[in-house]
Structure formats: structure tokens, C-alpha cells
Design goal:
The protein is α/β, with parallel strands linked by helices. It has 11 helices and 14 strands.
């Protein structure tokens, strides 16, 4: 299969690149983080994006790029729309009439965090700019009827070029929220799941198996890897006063039985990867 992977230089995109490039012909892109072998692309360059997607002979376009940090989206809604919504319009136009499928990676932030869990059938109600842009991008793609949205939660693990998750724990003190609950997903499990889901259309969820607070997740990562940092419990408002986060985001699927690994298995794999 010939795949275009937008955002291959990012945290999630790098993990996908590592797994997919072994079995498929993958063309990956980067924006500002230059990576040898990847193609430079600014999502705001609509002509370049349309040419690459529409004339590359791709079977699948995996869209894992955009403005991800919630605080950055909250402080600049115009930029968030330009990077998270408008490129989907361009991609849909460029792929119309071709056999290529667009797979959009979306977020649990399209929900407000007031329910114990969320399936694909639950109504969306985003509470921040990032979530609203992801919901708008979903609407564009789902209106076409032939493509796929995959919503994912907080992702943890190691990535080859943008190791942003573990970078959070690089200092002597790591603040972690006790009031944010999630079902975190181990990055290496994502690509195998996508290969089993990408023939579908509509929207599907893929989340982790265990439900934990962010504080518990970071504490268990610290212990498993023996990191020289102290994980400190905080309330979310103490570290993110200007960006509202949903308090409980647990993704479950009503359309398939796939789940990410339990935390013990994931952390054992992560620790072995660090030493091997």
C-alpha cells in the first residue's frame, strides 16, 4: 500500500512512521522539525498540500498533523483553524474522484468530560478551541461518507524524532494532574490497530485499556523507567489556568473490540526498549 503520512515528524506521526514504513511504501512530511527522508510541507501551503495528496498516487492519506498543544490552540484560534480544519477541506477536494481514503486522527477532546465513558455514538461537546477545531474537521470528513475518523486519547511512549511525552519528565520535578482521568494509549499499539481499522468508514474510537489519572500514569512511567524526576500531584488549573480541559475522557468503542495494552505490559515494553 502507498501511504501519505502527514505529520510524520511529530510524536504520534513518528511512531506511525516507524511501524508502517516497514511494511508499506510511506511518504512522510515534516513542517519545522527537519528529518532526513521526509518531505517538507507547511499545511497552510494549500497548493503544495493539494498537489502532494492528489497527485501522489496514494491509497491512503493518514492525517496526523496540525496544532496539537491545547494552550497554543486556545491562545490563537485563527492559527488552530488554519492548521486543524482548513487542511481537511483541501485534502477532501484534492482526493475527490480518486480511490484514496483519508484517515483523520482526531481527539477525545471533542467531548466535555462529564460522562464516565464515551463511545462513537455519544454527542460531542468540546470545551476548548482544540476540541472545537477537531470536531469541525470531523464534520467535514464525515459529510463525505467515504473516509474515516479515528479518535484517540492521551498517547504515551517513545517516538523517534519528537519524544515529547518523555521530554515532560526531563526535569527534576514533573507536575501531573490528579483531577484529569483518561485511558492512555501506548504509542506502538496504534499502527497495528489502524491497519485493522482503515478499511472502515465513519468514526471509530481506539483507546487504552486502563483508566487512570494523569498523576498515576506519570508516576508509573517514572517508576518503570527509573527516571530521576519527582512526580508532583497538582490540580490542572494550577498549571493550565487559561485552558479548560475535560476532567474525564475515557474512550470506548461500540464498533470494534480493539484496545491498547494494559499499563504494566506497555511499561515493561517501554523499559525493555530503553535498555535494548
Amino acid at each position: 500500500m502507498r501511504i501519505l503520512l502527514l505529520g510524520a515528524s511529530g510524536f504520534v506521526g513518528g511512531g506511525l512512521w516507524t511501524a508502517l514504513a516497514d511494511r508499506h511504501e510511506v511518504v512522510g512530511t515534516f513542517a519545522t522539525r527537519r528529518v532526513p527522508g521526509l518531505v517538507p510541507l507547511d499545511l497552510r501551503d494549500e497548493r503544495a498540500l493539494a498537489l502532494l495528496a492528489g497527485e501522489g498516487g496514494f491509497d491512503l492519506v493518514v492525517h496526523a498533523a496540525g496544532l496539537v498543544p491545547l494552550e497554543a490552540a486556545e491562545s490563537d484560534p485563527v492559527l488552530a483553524h488554519a492548521l486543524n480544519v482548513r487542511p481537511v477541506e483541501v485534502l477532501l477536494d484534492s482526493l475527490r474522484g480518486s480511490a484514496a481514503k483519508l484517515l483523520l486522527l482526531s481527539s477525545d477532546n471533542v467531548f466535555d468530560g462529564t460522562r464516565p465513558r464515551y463511545t462513537e455514538d455519544d454527542p460531542r461537546s468540546p470545551v476548548n478551541v482544540y476540541g472545537r477545531t477537531k470536531a469541525a474537521a470531523e464534520d467535514l470528513l464525515l459529510a463525505d461518507g467515504t473516509h474515516l475518523v479515528v479518535r484517540i486519547p492521551l498517547v504515551f511512549g517513545r517516538s523517534p524524532w519528537a519524544d515529547t511525552f518523555l521530554a515532560r519528565m526531563a526535569g527534576p520535578r514533573t507536575a501531573a494532574q490528579t483531577d484529569l482521568v483518561c485511558a492512555p494509549l501506548y504509542l506502538p499499539s496504534l499502527a497495528p490497530a489502524l491497519t485493522r481499522l482503515w478499511d472502515r468508514t465513519g468514526v471509530v474510537h481506539y483507546g487504552g485499556r486502563e483508566v487512570v489519572t494523569r498523576f498515576e500514569l506519570m508516576s508509573r512511567v517514572q517508576r518503570a523507567l527509573g527516571l530521576p524526576t519527582r512526580v508532583v500531584p497538582v490540580r490542572d488549573r494550577e498549571i493550565h489556568p487559561d485552558c479548560r480541559r475535560p476532567p474525564r475522557l475515557v474512550l470506548r468503542s461500540a464498533r470494534h473490540s480493539l484496545e491498547g495494552p494494559d499499563l504494566d505490559s506497555a511499561l515493561a515494553h517501554l523499559a525493555a526498549d530503553a535498555t535494548g
